[in-house]
Amino acid sequence: MQSNRRQFIKTLVAGGVALSFPFNLKGVDYSDHPLTILHTNDVHSHLDPFDANHPKFPNMGGFARRATLIEKLRNKNKHVLLLDAGDIFQGTPYFNFFGGKPELEFMSQMKYDASTIGNHEFDNGMEHLAQQLQYANFPFICTNYDFKGTIMEGKTTPWKIIEKGPYRIGIIGIGIDPSGLVSPANHEGMKWLDPVKTGEETALFLKKEQECNLVIALSHLGLTPTAERKDSDRKLAAETSSIDLIIGGHSHTFMEKPELIQNKKGKTAAINQVGWAGVILGQINYTLKKGEPQFMAVQHILR
Amino acid sequence: MQRHLFILLFVVLGLLSCQTPQKPAFESSSQHPLDSSIINNPEIEAKIAPLRDSVEAIMNEVIGESKSDLFPDKPETPLSNFVADLLLDAAKKEIEATGKKPLPIITVINVRGLRTAIPEGKITVEDIFSLMPFENQLVLLKLSGLNVRKLFQHMGESGGDGLAGASFTFSEGEVKNAKTGGQAIENEEFYYVATSDYLASGGDHYTIFQQAVEEYEFPSKIRDLIISHIRALSKKGELIDPATNKRIKFN
């Protein structure tokens, strides 16, 4: 009994020392573990760069270039997350002729971690969308689109957790109200749930129950509200408590840097969006803040 | 000794396990413009190339010529007249071919569904894809005259849209003088309305189409009908030169 306990303690202490050895005891140092989030939105089937005489984006964009850039950034950075905020489909004849298959195949090849469904993903109907999703090897995250009872049932996931080093990242996907935007026949049977309420519930669940230390929303609401639609990324950021970052889309907004918004708990939520057509790849960097060791708990155990 | 070991153990474990959780913090951001300084990924470029070739072969074909620049604007423009008129002709032919009951026929299109201007000069297939990127079908609806008036009411309230085969005045928020083929539209009579499946299913708030007593879907896409109409004009040596009259009068 006595020797058993001694043996047990020896093992624990040895284990403890072994575990603690690589770390600085003043706080685990993860400063060499930055998280790099790369993102696109509203690429709209722009497989090729714009023409050289395009008035706004001459010779900009293109999937083949994006693949090169992503590969380069993957080689340079330790933990890379690659995300898209929807409207992959529609905008060039490639979509008319090939129905979105090349877009999804190339994104799979670039190893996208996740995307969400934008309003234009419905353009050729849900049957077409369900069919095309077979070409994507990354998940489509839809938290407030309930496809139950439709052909899209089971083709999307309401949330997804991705671990990159010390980061446990919960991802949600927030879709825009399709009424007046998507042909009613093309979203028949799909239930659109309130983005703020559903987003908050799921984000909270990911933080509290799933112990994520970062929650990202892929949102296709658009940065600002419109006359017809009150929901927006700004509203989503301000009226929730557990979303750290919104990767936005739909409004085709070229944001020079992320907008920081105080959420309902007074914490900062960031929103970023990189225009459209894949002319820019966005990058957001996170680091881990060092925490100070807490001795209170140790004293409690000793008592 | 044992007690010391215990304390050491708890201190070590405490240091390891009881630190505040590491919180990710936003640090910085940057943007990467996708410009020509970035070389193509050869594997993806090799996959796009054949797609590009086949698309270009189709898209670069010149199918006709436009006499002037044509713009898609509210309430209605020569461009919306052009598309609405050609769809009216196509619908009439289809009705004849299928032996449907002949009724007065009207065409309605949404101006916002015409996505770009048509330039003066040579027109390619690509121009028409830009004008009409969506895969919309033409559908035929049978509506009562009363519901046609309600349809016009919505068109008036929403600032106009493309119309063919009919005309009306929108004055003080009311539809007046609604006519088709020179005849007043009667509440009790029935009429055909040809439109896109998008509007027919209630798109752009055209919910009145849900009141249709009959619906028939044409086999043709609207874009294909536009392309074949322009080809037919070219065959006759004619330019794209649409009617400039106003079908909706706003007073």
Description:
The complex is a heterodimer of chains A (303) and B (251). The radius of gyration of chain A is 22 Å and the shape is globular. In chain A, 27% of the residues lie in helices and 19% in strands. The two termini of chain A are 23 Å apart. Chain A has a single domain, classed as Purple Acid Phosphatase, chain A, domain 2 (4-Layer Sandwich), CATH 3.60.21. By secondary structure, chain A is of the alpha/beta class. In chain A, the strands form three sheets. In chain A, strands 4-5-7-8-10-9 form a six-stranded mixed sheet. Chain B has 251 residues and is of the alpha+beta class. Chain B has one domain: Alpha-Beta Complex (5'-nucleotidase,  domain 2), CATH 3.90.780.10. Chain B has a five-stranded mixed sheet with strand order 6-3-10-5-11. In chain B, helix 3 crosses helix 7. Classes of the chains: A alpha/beta (303), B alpha+beta (251). At the A-B interface, helix 1, helix 2, helix 3, helix 4 and strand 10 of A face helix 1, strand 1 and helix 2 of B. Strand 11 of chain A pairs antiparallel with strand 1 (23-33) of chain B.
